[in-house]
Amino acid sequence: MQDYQASSEVESPSRGTPRSRALLLGLLAIITPAGLVLVNVAAYVMSNLAAFRVAITVSAVVSTVILNGLTGITAYRLGASRWPDAWVFAPHLRRAVTAEFILALALGAAIGGQLTYQGLSDPAKLPNLSTFIAGLIGLAIPILLAAMLRDTTTRRQRRRYRVR
Predict the structure, then answer these.
(1) How many Å separate Cα 158 from the centre of its chain?
(2) Who's near 17: CB < 8 A, 6+ residues apart?
(3) Whole-number pLDDT of residue 45
(4) What CA–CA distance (Å, rounded) separates 128 from 119?
(5) Which terminus of the chain has fewer Cβ atoms in its 10 Å neighbourhood, N or C?
(6) How is residue 11 annotated by DSSP?
């Protein structure tokens, strides 16, 4: 009798823990209301696309500047610590390299903003594959660079270069 009780208390691996089941039920309960809210917001934005077009474009430009700026700063700091003798990281060229980086960043943000603005010009042509792919690339570049750079820095270096 004791063996039967002991074996019935052991939980089957396929059933999961009570915590994971509760988490799964919670996620399932949230999906429908969140989907309804997202659909209504998307319908409102689509019906007022002309008004949202400028705001979305400004948001795309700001996002490009912030994400690519942070990624560029991290890449520059990593390069300066690894290759201090390289001409790009020379102290007397630091201002010129910074100015060139800012110009490239502004140019990239302007191009991204222009493409976003053009991609949202006609609600009948949405969803637009080129706008979607541009958004994915805009997300992928900083995320992939950050992942690659994270593996090459030590924990101490990451703490040292946090935003101050």
Answers:
(1) 19
(2) 11
(3) 85
(4) 7
(5) C
(6) P
Cis amide linkage into residue 84, ω under 30° from 0: no
**What is the Cα–Cα distance from 71 to 89, expressed in whole angstroms?**
16
Q: What is the pLDDT of residue 40?
A: 92
pLDDT digits (tens, 9 = 90+) for 9-35: 555 555 667 788 888 888 888 888 888
- Residue with token string 């989907």: 35
Q: Are 152 and 77 in contact (CB under 8 A)?
A: no
pLDDT over 80 at 134, yes or no: no
Residue with tokens 């935003």: 163
**Whole-angstrom distance, CA of residue 52 vs CA of residue 56:** 6
The C-alpha atoms of residue 67 and residue 130 are separated, in whole angstroms, by 20
Q: Which two tokens stand for residue 7?
A: 């074996």
Rg of the chain over Cα atoms, rounded to whole angstroms, equals 25
Residue 83, helix vs strand vs coil: coil
Q: Residue 75 in contact with residue 145, Cβ under 8 Å?
A: yes
Which pLDDT belongs to residue 160?
59
Residue 13 DSSP one-character state: T
